[in-house]
Amino acid sequence: METKTRKRKIVSIVVDGVGDLSCQAFRYKTPLETAHTPFLDALAECGVTGLMDSLEPGFACGSDTAHMLIFGYQPRGIYRGRGAFEALGGGLDMHPGDIAFKSNFCTYDKPTNMVITRRADRSMEVIGPLLAKSINGIAPGMSGNVTGTDPLVDYKPLLRSRPLDDTPEAKRTSEIINELSDTIYEILSQHPVNEERKKQNKNLANLISLRGPGIQITIPPFSELRPTIKPFVIAPTAIVAGVALTAQMDVYTCPGATGDYFTDFQKKAEFFAKMIEVTPYNYCFCHIKATDDTGHDGRPVLRKEIIERVDRMIGILLERLCGGDEPDEGKGSSHELILQLTADHSTPICVKDHSCEPPPLLICHLDHFKRRYKAVRKNKELDREKDGWKEPFDYSKYLFHTEDEWHDDDDSAASSSSSSSSSPSVPVVEEHEPDFRETGGITKEEGSVVLVPRKSSSSAVPENLSPVADFLAPDAVKAYAEVACAKGKLGRFRAHELMPFAERLINFEKLSL
Asked: What's the 3-state SS for 343-394?
């Protein structure tokens, strides 16, 4: 296939919080340096590498501001808190006068006013909706210029919200938040779910901590800023989906992608590959969250395992997109693909929070990967379509939409809240602590794809590289890790430079690295 007939696309993957510091548990190497990541290392070998500062050197930032920058928006002057992004990404519309928070069910000890643990449980899929239903309600006409109640650290006193300006709206909002905290504690402490958790000696989810109060902001649509880029976003995490929705980008939900330790990496890879191949978008974005959670939770062994699972996900994606030499290995994508992989920030295990250290960045023209390697299934007998993934499908049914759940004109929400607070009638569901190795570990084919050096004469590799591929000729880096990528020829990028760079690659203007 001639290069000039192929449509050029950017495949952008953000592995949330994957950057780290040297870790005692790994003999003072980073998790990326310790983990077995053949596919990430091969992409680094076949691409150009560097480091990426989310905001500026020496500054840490949140995932919301980092993704605004990655998508090409400057948050200074327009950022109004992460709460509205969380609400939008969670499926709720935001109207003028609404205020939203990033919130967690936490374990609170009222006699000492201590937040014992800011997250009562990582797995809230079952009990979360039951608890939320008992406190459902809304107060209109609120201000976002208030502080939250989350102390941000375990075993610290619960904070009281306070106004950040002298407006009546801000004062009223902070008063309501403090009153709500007291009411929520009384309701949740008596909830059947928490009665059951107390019997099981589990952390009680008896309060909701609030941080990042935010109102809906208006920013120019992405299509107006960069009309030649047609993006789609796969982001099971509400905060990233909310940022994309605010920019009026198309967000899709991937079956099985939960954005936590139990996500199905195989389904995510398969769905992402199909979206890349059959849709008209030329900027294809996928967010991976689980790595960030391991940093916040301070779990080095699990962090290493999750990084290795991400690598296997990348292997499945490369097997689809790059094809192989044999008839049963598929022909790969019909497009000219440039893969960009980085993190939105670092979340070191020893810090348990975002830090200023720049994560590694790689950009690889997949023609270079195809010249050196191929991703091959070990288990040929597995029942799997070869090139059927290229067939058109109704991807519109996976398009994410918000719902106007906050603005019922009747009193059903209020009556539901009052009735459930007096005598909760929701059923108690028996909980089972899931094991990610069983529920979301190596699924059917994750781990069955291996990296193999390609034969020198391969029909899958274009004979003549495109000008973009020549421009992205590999540097000398051989591994995707912090210290290794620091030596790459991309140098030290800033997040807000990624989208203009992607735009110029798609349109290909002459650049110099």
From this structure: CCCECCCCCCCCECCCCEEEEEEHHHHHHHEEEEECCCCCCCCCCHHHCCCC
Q: What is the DSSP string of 386-430?
A: SSGGGS---GGGGB---B--S--SSSHHHHHHHHHHHS--SPPPP
How far is the CA of 415 from the CAs of 181, 234, 405, in angstroms? 19, 36, 15
Q: Is 343 part of any domain?
A: yes
Q: Which domain holds residue 150?
A: 96-215
Q: How many angstroms separate the Cα of 168 from the Cα of each of 83, 174, 266?
A: 21, 10, 51
Backbone angles phi, psi at 492, to 5 degrees: -115, 100
Among candidate residues 362, 348, 349, the one with its CA nearest the CA of residue 484: 362
How many residues would you count in the chain?
A: 513
Contact between 241 and 223 (Cβ < 8 Å): no
Residues ≥6 apart with Cβ < 8 Å to 416: 133, 136
Q: How many distinct structural domains can be found in the chain? A: 2
What confidence tens digit (pLDDT) does each residue in 136-176 have?
664 556 677 889 898 888 889 999 999 999 998 889 888 88
DSSP class of residue 513 equals -
The three-class DSSP label of residue 83 is: helix
Report the 10 Å Cβ neighbour count for 422.
Answer: 10
- pLDDT tens digits for range 435-448: 544 444 556 667 78
Q: Tell me, what amino acid is at 20?
A: D
Same domain, residue pair 181 and 127: yes
- Shared domain check, 481 and 374: yes
CA distance 173 to 305: 43
Residue 342, helix vs strand vs coil = strand
Tokens (6 digits) for 481: 């890790």
Residue 286's DSSP bridge partners are 13, 234
* Among the listed residues 363, 421, 453, 272, the one whose alpha carbon sits nearest the alpha carbon of residue 46: 363
- Which residue, 215, 233, 259, sits at the end of a domain? 215
